[in-house]
Amino acid sequence: MRTVPRTIKHPDWAVTGIPKAEQRLSRTKIDILDAKGQDAMRKVCRLAREVLDITAAEIKPGVTTDYLDELCHKACVERESYPSPLNYNHFPKSLCTSVNEVVCHGIPDQRILLDGDIINLDISLYHGGYHADVNETYYVGDRAKADPDSVKVIETTRECLDKAIEIVKPGTPIREFGRVIEKHAKSRNLKVVATWGGHGINTEFHPPPWIPHYSKNKAVGVCKAGMTFTIEPILALGSSREIYWPDDWTNVTGDGKRTAQFEHTLLVTETGVEVLTARNENSPGGPVVLSTSTTDGTAEAA
Ligand code: MF3
Ligand code: CO
Q1: Are 157 and 285 contacting, i.e. CB atoms less than 8 angstroms apart?
Q2: pLDDT (tens digit per residue) in 18-57
Q3: Which residue among 140, 190, 208, 292 sits deepest, i.e. has the most Cβ atoms within 10 Å of its Cβ?
Q4: How far is the centre of ligand 1, averaged over its atoms, from the C-alpha of 84 (Å)?
């Protein structure tokens, strides 16, 4: 495991591997942050965006996922931040790298990225006593040559997150996000992976609420100004059935088809939402235009 200087504040799992405080939380009480807490969230989320962009800029054929982990780790430490995944429930690295059929929580290793792969980078930071969480899926190599299925799953997932964010404001029931996401996924014949969800995020990494990404869910509660949470849908090209690798972290699709995921950390404001981990004009990645044969919901020619 990489080390973090002692001068940087560590979360409780850094030493034991167990998120004790998180496990003790009530499952229903959703925190409302005051102005000071909101500013702390703005700060850590800005740092998380910087770290994601620095790491993503190095995605190219020939680099290993462990090299990306090293970059992420160093960028966190330079920003006086602890990489939240490190030793969280014994996760061994500072970054999650999920390539092609890996659904999420891939562990960086010596795997070399190849032209035509897709990779999700999931970055979380702990700074000033607060966590940030952001992830994006990227094309490896020439994105103009990406295969149509990869473009379909990546761009539709990006749009699903955007559509869910559009309805965030005080009063929106938390169960609504899943409805919006699954409706759009279905319009392109894609499946929502139901196992994973969004979550509250603040002084804890995964406090309530749990946010399902599928429709007809029974999530309780409504958005209130001062709440901070993530939305992070995963869509699959084929079946959403997952299989675990023996490392107990990496989960892959049972049919080997690809998935994509996008995540932002959000703050509910009096009038709507602030996307705390928003991209800026220099952020690597970003949307690719979908072909019309993809947007009409039918399968495109091979
Ligand atoms: N960042 C992930 C999330 O979106 C959690 C990663 S925790 C780890 O909630 F241990 F898997 F790294
Ligand atoms: Co998250």
Answers
A1: no
A2: 999 999 999 899 999 999 999 999 999 999 999 999 999 9
A3: 190
A4: 8
- β-strand partners of 108: none
CA of 135 to the centre of ligand 2 (A): 8
Q: Which atom of ligand 1 is nearest to the CA of 88?
A: 10
Interval between CA 178 and ligand 2 midpoint (Å): 15
Superfamily of domain 30-301: Creatinase/methionine aminopeptidase superfamily (3.90.230.10)
Give the H or E element holding residue 120.
strand 118-127
- Type of residue found at 97: T
The whole-angstrom separation of Cα 88 and Cα 143 is 33
Which residues line the annotated binding site for a divalent metal cation? 122, 133, 199, 232, 263
Domain borders along the chain are 30-301
Spatial CA neighbour of 237 closest among 300, 292, 285: 300
What the block records as the tokens of 102 is: 């890996």
